[in-house]
Structure prediction request, 213 residues.
Amino acid sequence: MDIYQAFENRQTIRDFEQINGTPRMIDAALVTKLIKAGFTAPTNDHLRDWHFVLLNDLDQRTQLISEVISPISIKRSENIINRWGLTDPIQRAMYLEGIPRQFSMLNDCGCLLLPFYRQDLPLLQPKNLSALNYFVSIWLCIENIFNAAAAEGIQGVVRIPAPEESRIVKTRLNIPSNYEFPCWIALGYPAPGATRARQVAIDLETRIHQNQW
Ligand SMILES: Cc1cc2nc3c(=O)[nH]c(=O)nc-3n(C[C@H](O)[C@H](O)[C@H](O)COP(=O)(O)O)c2cc1C
Prediction:
């Protein structure tokens, strides 16, 4: 597939295809291919010290997710969105769709991928932009994975872990202490009729500035 077509195809999906009540899993060789695409991303120190834990044992997956995430009702999601003061209707619709699915999207996906990257400096006390380079690099890798997945007819979503969630995940999965957990990556085949959030229309004319803003 043309790379621009893959960019166009990528869209966040939180409802994944199930077969007889269990997720349609992504073939292991294809998962490796997607991660290989991830490893072609540019990187700050040339070392690509990135690791991935595939959490595809469904019992183990459910046990870990249940320990760190509680399902949130639509009503409570609405309260959260109101508390945040969001007013844009397209943005509100996205959050109203997304917040109640944080548990199910991880549980029901066709491959649950947990990336880890080496972060020797404290991530949350950066002294300059360069201190964030390791974090930036793993996100470039993650973006490659999503675009490669889109080229294969696979979509998904990321979830940013809360601090305690991250600590528990790292402990349960034996992650070395100098590796950080930037996000969960849930990938899979979209369920029939899976919701795709309406995109906010961007007029590039207003975003591209010649010589000065
Ligand atoms: C840095 C980042 C953090 C995100 N965090 C979450 C998250 O915690 N939970 C979730 O369901 N989606 C999350 N998303 C997905 C966004 O909601 C989604 O990408 C956005 O609404 C744009 O929609 P699109 O991906 O379909 O274009 C995140 C995306 C990014 C890039």
Remarks:
- The chain has a mean pLDDT of 97.
- The two ends are 36 Å apart (CA to CA).
- The first helix runs from residue 3 to 9.
